[in-house]
Amino acid sequence: MGVSMKFTDLDQYLFGQGTNYEVYKKIPEYYYHLGMAYLDKGDYSNAKMQFSVYLQMYKRTPILRYDERSGCIALAMLTYDKTLSTGEKKELVSVATKNLPSNSAAVLQCAMVYIYELREAEKGFQLIRAGIDDPQASDRDVLFMAAANLLPYAKSFPPVYRAILETFKNTTSVSFDSFLTYLIYSQSNPWEQINRNLDFIDCYKSHVLNNMERGVTILEGKGGYTNESKPVLMIVIPQKLYSNLEHEIMQLDPRAFIIVNSVHEVDGEGFTYELEDLK
User: Core-most of 34, 166, 172, 227, by most CB within 10 Å?
Assistant: First the structure.
């Protein structure tokens, strides 16, 4: 492949005295994983050498449109290499965002580099805004929380600031913690909005506990598609009371997601319902 490598301690630990190196040296992934192993050891110097070989080999024969390993190498270099120039940092940010397009952690790290290291805060906020607008982003609430906490600084850039506010206003998949932080930093009277959002759960509990004389369990749920956290309220009621409950829920939140299951029996402390009791 035209690439010369010095055999290192970790190489010898993995492959003995080098007898297997002839097999692995033609595989780009070998150098990537070896580099990551060096990072785990705290040896960035050797890790960088392995990463360099991987990138040279991959550049000659690119296989995929996106190469996650190249993106991860770029993030590792941004984290550990303290000798990078401004131009090198910008190039690594470009590599990371190109190859990890919907990775919220990668987007956030690159945004922080723009904001705090390159002193190009507007570009950092634009990255965050694009991330929270991306429905395919992994663990998008990481970006929502970052956006909420950075709102006071984003005000210096009105277009992106307004875009972030609009996303918060129009999304239904932001966690309660992130939404509260957004309200605190964006509203002139945040506690009025916070109390309004708390009212839904409180009103629902009050209706079920007092008016219907039933219990309610609040679970912590997480969307499989959005990875966003939301409360899940569970109640067991007789069928004849369901229409009343549904009406009350729609009054409190017209966008509420409701799942209805048939129940044969409910056992637990405080009550036991047989099938006849639930009709």
Answer: 34
